[in-house]
Design goal:
The protein is mostly helical. The chain has one domain. The radius of gyration is 15 Å and the shape is globular.
């Protein structure tokens, strides 16, 4: 994976369901934006990313959360139509 210096890649290990982390971070954008620094382009430093606490339930609960959240997103999309 490659990106520029202003972007942090997060690669999940076997303990983290990627879809769980996707939705968890997506629903916390206000908090994550508050951590950004910079005038022109907000960036979260590697140090700050490493310090973010991520609730890590067992994998089955992570998957259930992801399925539920995906359904909520679909419902929101349909409601907007």
């Amino acid at each position: 994976m490659c990106c520029n210096q202003g972007f942090k890649n997060i690669i999940c290990n076997e303990k983290v369901a990627s879809e769980y982390l996707y939705y968890l971070l997506g629903y916390n954008t206000i908090f994550l934006n508050s951590l950004g620094r910079g005038a022109t382009f907000k960036e979260i430093s590697k140090k700050i990313v490493e310090e973010i606490k991520v609730p890590l339930p067992v994998k089955e609960l992570q998957n259930q959360f992801a399925v539920f959240t995906r359904q909520v997103d679909k419902s929101k999309f349909v409601a907007k139509q």
